[in-house]
Write a structure and sequence with these properties.
The complex is a heterodimer. Chain A is mostly helical. Chain A has twelve helices and two strands; from the N terminus they run H-H-H-H-E-H-E-H-H-H-H-H-H-H. Chain A has a two-stranded antiparallel ribbon with strand order 1-2. In chain B, helix 3 packs across helix 12. Classes of the chains: A mainly alpha, B mainly alpha.
């Protein structure tokens, strides 16, 4: 592989976990939940997947366990923030702290065997110039994205459930009047977010890396939030954001080897700076779901 | 009004957290008894232990009280960690680059750190005012930018990197602060030392509580937080009040950074990652204290004791990270219980 292929293929690998989780955060935010616990969902799933893979000897079962862990964290989040009416940011923050502490604690006192899902090489695709190697030789969960992206798009943009979901994110009072159970829809969106972020975290662990290390998501959950903002709450642009952030990360890692000196701190800060700039540019045109981050309580307004 | 902000239900909740943590320790094959004893020995048992607890408490308290001020105005900010780091950064810059001698250098260092934190929070306030950018998100994103700013500054020889001695390799950290820029300590009791930072933090806590309860600005702040519409109708300039609350909370966090930089916990130098989660923990303290500055004092002491005691955990084989688990459980237990 030449240099461009190496950077591109590591870019795809770094972007894939972000893309999974972004599919979830996108749905959650469209429902009005600014979910800052993506990080917890990804990290918890990464740990659970490696633990389960080590216990069962199957990386695929590990992937499933990761999804379950993400869903569990989402259930806890949904219950606390939409049933017990705790401020969602407080819940998210506490969950991030809890999962970081718990997984760091558990990994320090356990020893897992390494397992990794198999690599797939797509016959025709791999012969393409430049784009071939990066896209054709991947761990198989990456190809799940091919189904999950259109599914997410259809769910949010074309299904009745999605229409209700968006109305909950834009105007919960009106949705409530028309008989939609606002907080139930939000819990469902959160659950979808948990499943997707779980898939992202598990893919990172048993897909790309093959093992768990302390704080291995290292802020990827926050980058996912940045990607949704960067994407101005649209699916296509959100995924583009993930690709961009993955590529920036790949460049940061590859540049020293390529003999180029570009400031690595600047590249590390790039996703966050890009998201801030995107917010400055886009938010005023109010594409942001209007009720984003506002808890809904019947009769409160 | 309940002065402490904590209710009777807190005691069983905390007992539950303790029990759950003991179960986790037991389940991973360690002894809960010796873990508890280690935390106690590290946090409270004797003079040095108390000293390290108090050292850890001061910055936590400052961050927490600042967060209370913002929360009172209805501004929810989660960027304290970044503001603490920027406080460390600007504080270090002032302390290392200004040709001032004597106690004035300490004053300038502290003020510089507070200004840095205020500026960092102020950027979020500006973005909110100009373009309606969500404050929660912008303050969060700025944390990660702040981390890179510090990492950059201590990686550049012309900026804040430690100046070269005989060795060719220079660690990514700044020089040590000159003596006049360090916080002095009082009362050389048998090894119990009280750092000036704690005195400062307590004084600012009292000032903040009094300002909130007794002054016109405090009233405006509370009114804005309770009902922005009502505040607007009674002639309060809501955006100005909320922006100022955010900036002041940033200044508190920045000052907390200086308390770490200029005290033994920071080894008197700027290092990447030196904020060590104090911003997040301080925010958690404010949440547990439900925005009440007085309540922040005991809660910050508790969190400070956990921080100090946690470093003794490893000796018993129990990973240090148990402390983070306990902190998060405490927050969930205390926040969820309240209607």
């Amino acid at each position: 592989m030449n240099d461009i292929e190496i950077v591109l293929s590591s870019g795809v690998r770094l972007a894939a976990p972000l893309a999974f989780a972004a599919l979830g955060e996108y749905v959650a935010e469209r429902a009005g939940c600014l979910n800052i616990s993506v990080e917890a969902m990804m990290l918890g799933a990464a740990f659970a997947s490696v633990a389960a893979a080590s216990a069962t000897g199957s990386a695929t079962l590990g992937l499933a366990a990761g999804v379950a862990a993400g869903a569990l964290i989402a259930l806890v989040h949904g219950t606390l923030s939409h049933r017990a009416r705790v401020n969602p940011f407080v819940v998210g923050l506490a969950l991030n702290t809890l999962v970081l502490g718990l997984t760091s604690y558990l990994i320090a006192s356990s020893d897992f065997a390494s397992h990794q899902v198999t690599q797939v090489s797509v016959p025709v695709l791999r012969d393409l110039p430049v784009l071939g190697p990066p896209l054709a030789v991947e761990r198989w969960p990456v190809y799940l994205l091919l189904g999950l992206v259109p599914l997410t798009w259809w769910l949010v943009s074309r299904s009745r459930w999605g229409l209700e979901l968006r109305s909950v994110g834009e105007n919960p009072e009106a949705a409530d009047v028309t008989g939609i159970h606002v907080n139930r829809r939000r819990r469902q969106a959160m659950l979808w977010c948990g499943v997707m972020a779980g898939l992202g975290g598990a893919h990172l662990a048993v897909g790309e890396v093959g093992s768990f290390s302390q704080n291995m998501t290292a802020g990827r959950g926050y980058i996912v939030i940045a990607a949704v903002i960067f994407g101005a709450w649209r699916l296509g642009r959100t995924l583009l954001g993930c690709a961009l952030f993955g590529l920036a990360d790949a460049l940061r890692l590859a540049l020293p080897a390529l003999g180029v000196t570009l400031n690595s701190q600047l590249l590390a800060a790039a996703p966050y700076l890009l998201a801030l700039v995107a917010m400055l540019v886009f938010v005023a045109s109010s594409r942001q779901p209007r009720a984003l981050g506002q808890p809904f309580e019947r009769g409160s307004s | 009004m309940n002065v402490t902000g904590l209710r009777g239900g807190s005691v069983p909740a905390l007992a539950g957290v303790l029990l759950l943590s003991a179960l986790i320790v037991q389940a991973t094959g360690h002894s809960p008894d010796s873990a508890l004893e280690a935390v106690f020995r590290g946090a409270l048992a004797d003079g040095p232990a108390l000293t390290s607890t108090l050292l850890a408490t001061a910055p936590l308290l400052l961050v927490a009280v600042g967060s209370c001020l913002a929360a009172r105005a209805g501004v929810f900010t989660i960027g304290q960690e970044g503001q603490v780091l920027i406080g460390c950064f600007t504080g270090a810059w002032f302390a290392l680059r200004l040709a001032i001698d004597g106690p004035l250098l300490l004053v300038v260092t502290l003020l510089g750190a507070a200004a840095g934190g205020a500026l960092w929070a102020g950027l979020s306030a500006l973005m909110h005012r100009w373009r309606g950018v969500n404050i929660v998100v912008s303050t969060l994103l700025m944390v990660f930018v702040a981390q890179q700013v510090v990492a950059f500054s201590v990686g550049q020889a012309w900026f804040l990197q430690q100046s070269k001695g005989d060795k060719a390799v220079v660690a990514p950290q700044s020089n040590q602060l000159p003596l006049p820029a360090r916080l002095p300590s009082f009362g050389e009791y048998p090894s119990l030392v009280v750092n000036l930072g704690l005195v400062l933090a307590l004084a600012l806590t009292v000032v903040s509580a009094v300002v909130l309860a007794r002054t016109r600005w405090g009233f405006r702040l509370t009114l804005t937080g309770l009902s922005p519409a009502a505040a607007r109708h009674s002639g309060v300039r809501v955006t100005r009040v909320t922006s100022l609350a955010l900036v002041v909370s940033g200044a508190f966090s920045g000052l907390a950074g200086a308390l770490m930089l200029a005290s033994p916990i920071g080894t008197y130098r700027l290092q990447p990652g030196m904020s060590a989660g104090v911003g997040w923990d301080g925010l958690l303290v404010a949440l547990v204290a439900r925005g009440n500055p007085w309540t922040c004092v005991p809660v910050a002491l508790g969190f400070g004791a956990l921080r100090a005691g946690g470093s003794f955990l490893s000796a018993t084989g129990v990973p240090f990270f148990l402390v983070d688990v306990i902190k998060a459980l405490v927050v969930l237990a205390l926040v969820v219980r309240q209607p």
